[in-house]
Amino acid sequence: MTDDRLIVALDLPDAVQGLVLAEKLGDACGFYKIGLGMLTGGGLALANELKQEHGKRIFLDMKLFDIAATIETAVRGLSQFDPDFLTVHGDPHVVDAAKQGAAGSDLKILAVTILTSLDRADLDAGLMKAGALPDLVRERAQKAFAAGADGVIASPQEAALIRALPDAKGRLIVTPGVRPADSDPGDQKRIATPASAVRDGADHIVVGRPIWQASDPRAAAQSILDDLSKT
Ligand code: C5P
Hints:
Blueprint: E1 6-9, H1 15-25, E2 31-35, H2 43-52, E3 57-64, H3 68-79, E4 85-89, H4 92-101, E5 108-112, H5 120-125, H6 133-146, E6 151-153, H7 156-163, E7 172-175, H8 194-199, E8 204-207, H9 209-212, H10 217-228
Parallel strand pairs: 1-2, 1-8, 2-3, 3-4, 4-5, 5-6, 6-7, 7-8
Helix pairs in contact: 1-2, 3-4
């Protein structure tokens, strides 16, 4: 049976290339992440096809942020594609509105705390309050849980501190920035291996380039599944 703890990021420009990759991966992947990069390239149609025709689970990584009424309408509309996970920013009014939009569906709302690409200087530039990044991540996660988030996106380094929050019980932690031990980190700075991310509390790991850029994507996915099977 496919190990759905692995989510493959389909960071390809269009649905045709996404489908080619999904066909190469076959039963090595049961869960795909489709993001903004593919939105204008047929991403929602691909999400629908992978779900309805191939039985795959779908994570729409849209990182929505807007006024409550717009979020609720957008999430209600997206839920018609029957995705499993959807990201929104972790601001409580956004999470709350997203949960209302998802009412009646099985969609899980995942909150982005602070983008892992941002450092303290970026937060200063964006007028975010003072404090150490891990403390702000923990506080944002706590507020998102209180607003009803089904889970959060977190770097592997943040997974353990979020997992330790009392309100994290029964919530999902989904972790990008994961690399097989022997692979190129690319632009990911704070990385972990698949098994260590899971040991630190991740329920799912998101892996993109180590799989879709590999000459043999199925073998690359299989080596990640092998690492996961040690946990
Ligand atoms: O290619 P790679 O494995 O780095 O892809 C990771 C995926 O997770 C990409 O789709 C990227 O946009 C996403 N992501 C991330 N860091 C975040 C949030 C999302 O790398 N903080």
